[in-house]
């Protein structure tokens, strides 16, 4: 499995884990166009924090150490987390070069 596919699997697994915890207004379907941030996203602030913690855990399992809680993405949060695809693309470009 290629690294980008591993990242995608990790993020989709994090979404599923967040769904299980029940912190979103509705269950989120893992797909490339799933919204992770913004007005139309089912995550409130707590749900988003839980998702980022789950994402960190899953990414670490594939060897990527990412600290999403320390404001690493503050500059472009809205664009980076717009969809799962934009988040995966960001991780791939910035963690795998």
Description:
The protein is mostly helical and 97 residues long. Helix content is 54%, strand content 0%. It contains 4 helices and no strands. The chain has helices at 3-21, 45-61, 77-80, 84-95. It is globular. The model has no long low-confidence stretch (mean pLDDT 85).
Notable traits:
4 helices; single chain; 97 residues; mainly alpha
**Number of helical elements:** 4
Overall residue-averaged pLDDT value? 85
Percent of residues in beta strands: under 5%
Proportion in helices: 40-55%
Rg estimate, integer Å? 12 Å
Q: What is the string of helix and strand elements?
A: HHHH
Overall structural class, as computed from helix and strand content, comes to mainly alpha
Uncertain runs are none
Spatial shape: globular
What kind of sheet is the major sheet? none
Brief write-up:
This protein has 97 residues and is mainly α. It contains four helices and no strands.
Write the layout of secondary structure elements.
Layout: H1 3-21, H2 45-61, H3 77-80, H4 84-95
Helix pairs in contact: 1-2, 1-4
